[in-house]
Amino acid sequence: MKPAIWNLILTDDTAAAQLQTELKIPLVFCRLLVQRGILNLEDARKFFRHDLNNTHNPFLMKDMDLAVERLDAALQNNERILLYGDYDVDGTTSVALMFDFLSRFHPNLDYYLPDRDKEGYGVSLLGVEYARKTGCTLIIAMDCGIKGHKPISLAKSYGIDFIVCDHHLPEGDLPDAVACLDPKRVDCPYPYKELSGCGISYKLAQALALHYNTPAEEISSLLDLVAVSTACDIVPMTGENRILAHFGLQRLNRSPRLGLWAMCQRINRPQPLDITDVVFGIGPLINAAGRLADAREAVRMLLSADKNSALENAGHLVTRNKDRRIIDFSMAEAAHRKFMEMTDWNDRKSTVLFEPNWHKGIIGIVASRIVETFHKPTVILTESNGKAVGSARSVAGFDLYGALQQCDDLFTTYGGHAHAAGMQMPLENVEAFIDRFEMVVGQTIAPEMEHPQIDICAKIMFDEITPGFWKILNRFEPFGPQNLNPVFWAESVTDTGRSKLLANNHVKLSLRQAGSKVEMTGIGFGLGKKFEAVQGKSFGLIFNLREDEWQGQRTVKIYAKDMR
Description:
Diaminopimelate Epimerase, Chain A, domain 1, alpha/beta, single chain, inorganic pyrophosphatase (n-terminal core), 19 strands, 3 domains, 5-stranded mixed β-sheet, CATH 2.40.50.460, globular
């Protein structure tokens, strides 16, 4: 992997100093606030004091009144409602949330999640046919649907209405649905644009609850699912998302639904769980169902009615995820070899690899692993139903979707955003796509994007990492995109002699800093060889801080990101 560039974020020191006079907290935290665009006392108070009253009225969302009117009619007339969601964490949590909420007063419900291999992403024609055969007259599509023109038109011809709850960017005209709830619609006045698909489903439930004067607790009980979705769908952890995730994590840690409780038991992570635990512990278990089998397994688990069935369902997902990891690592190794067998691999600006036997449900993970290794915009392709299907991942700063738009004549379908995307194309177009994508990336990628970059928030001394420091840092959570766990930089660090190399290139750290008597311990995942290169010398270290628990004692630990 290419060495990372260490980038100390430029910060308005005057603004940070002014904020410090108002907040009376260490300057380093005022720098962190300024880096997040928080420049005055009022905004700082909102940032630190989470309040559900600071979320927005759901009826500000375009078409929300139409969605509630149609859903209310369906409930009054005892219509059969189909809850349709994508097969990933965001889609499965959306379906579970809406089923949980509506089933409390409406029994005539069903849910449908498409088969990744047979139907692919989005609302499918097979899903609409299922709705027709089972007598459904209303479909609520969640985390998909904003581009589902053909299936939604087919449904209308059958007398089946659609409510769309999506957070992806619309293109062209909207589908012919009764209501299209999507803050990214150009005509939508909703103040916050970055909700997850499950977040938008929650706003629909919230709007219906307001319509029925339902007690607030009935809605807040859904927030554990919203937190899982917000964390795992990698949406910005700002504004409304951060508030919903905060209270959702509280519920996840204090009184989670049985399905999430069972998964927490299975992942063996001490409470309280944070966003990292959700993303790397819970998320992969939920995703494993849709990657290797049937995403409905994940919904059944989330809707578990008793502890025994919840633990059994969670156990199935643990097994699925172990199987996924075996396939994942095998495919990643094969992709790595395949790329390095290309004579010009080091000079190429992109990585596009096609292997017809690769597992369709795993190619997205493999694309991410290849980006980590080679740091190039990457597309991994396999064959499915006689066509080439692919999953793409980008490097920081490069607009992947914009690059794919310049190849759109080669695709049957494609979609995504700047960081991740998917596509389908005729098999005979694969070679042309490899050449075209390489040309487009070569013409548009900036030189600084060709190297990994780690943004560093501040330089600090180990002496500063006190219980009071940790208490304030905790208030910046929950962390996520645009509110990342701060990366700190410590200079003149040395090994105490108690650091230890571990298996798989990891290293257990015991460190001191010149001029400080504090010993900091922690872990460096994948940094074993780098540690060997600096061992016995004074070196620079960049790291996050996390609190770990061992035998009932909680200690702030270093999670090293790089050293030199």
